[in-house]
Amino acid sequence: MNCSNVKSRAPVEDLPFEILGKIFTLCLPDDLYIELNPRNAPLLLLQICRFWRDTAISTEQLWRSLTFHVAEGGHVSSSYHKLAQGCLARSGAGPLRLQFRTTGTSRKPSVQYTPLYRILPCSQEVHRCVSLCLVLPFEELEELEGMAAPSLPLSLRAPSGFDPANPQELLQRPMYRLYQKLTELVLDDIDLADRCLDVLTWCPNLLSCTLRFSESSDYEAIESAAHKINLHALHHLEIDISLGCVDDVLLTLTLPCLRSLTLTVNGMISPWGLLSLLKQSQCSLRELSIKGMRAFFDSRDDLNELLTLMPDLTYLELEGEADEDWIGLEAFDILEGTNIDVLAFDPPNNRRPLPLLESLRFASPSHDLPEAGAIQEMLLSRVLRSPNEPDPALRSARIVVLMEDTVHVWSYEQEHGHVMESEYERMEYPG
């Protein structure tokens, strides 16, 4: 249910004509007594619409996922509040999934509104909620102080910035208990890194966390001794940060259940923060994606150490980025012919980096191409195994080398069974 005051296109208008035709056919009764001709079209349409309406109203599952569009100040139009009660009445006794999403619009004087915190208690259906997602600015979340915190997993997103003026004061407010129940947290446009870490300490039961820092953020040095955060249940972490405190953030975290990590750095990143996170967490990481790095590994040993700490990894994505002067390529270059084999299987020397890897994605600028055949040899070592060994895990790979005028691509798909090599002009590269 869309609880906004903005007129929108009817969902039925977005359906392809082929699907609409099937719906109309299914809605026609077997004992059709009206002759199929243009003059009877209005009667047929009326009959179909009635049947469709009766079916929709009687299907309880259609009314168990509701979205409320919230106006400025954490208020919902009273008319839509009443409509929501009707939807809840049609939803039966099954599980509810509710989402409250900000519209960014001001309240209209001619419209009556209901405070957000009154919607759930007066519906008397809070016990049925299995998912509650709050996509609201921090200042509007304060409207929830009057709502009894339900005993269910919560999702919180703050798209307009998150910088509580006094975190200690917040800890004493009723809304703090919402944080203790959060399972998903998304914070956008973060201004202060230390405030962001404060928020994480309030959310011990997070399963998923996304942190997006603003480009104008104040990245003062974080005292790692003062911030040691153990999120014992966190499975997915995504950090989007344009300046240089990603290492500071990673050094403070212990994530024993981490399975997926995505870092978008848009600049320099050292391996120390990630190595520290993996060592102190001792987690079984399955997916790692690092995008926007200009330099990462200082040496082959650093990369080897990282690979050793991720024996269960199934997805690896490393995406490099060159600055205007192509600086940063002097550091350890994984694409050098002598280094690309760091990802290769070497059974005689008992080297099996990332033995469970299924998908490899690598893209980076480079002054020079790797040695002839080096990338193919690395990929084939992970594909062509001896008869006594189990089937290879590698299902797909894509390695892109961005040069000044050309782009070179190596790709492998298990269904095709061979490595393909392509070359493009920079302006013609489709990716």
From TrEMBL:
InterPro entries: F-box-like_dom_sf (IPR036047), F-box_dom (IPR001810), LRR_dom_sf (IPR032675). Residues 9-66 form the F-box domain. SUPFAM superfamilies: F-box domain, RNI-like. PROSITE patterns: FBOX (PS50181). This is F-box domain-containing protein. It comes from Gloeophyllum trabeum (strain ATCC 11539 / FP-39264 / Madison 617).
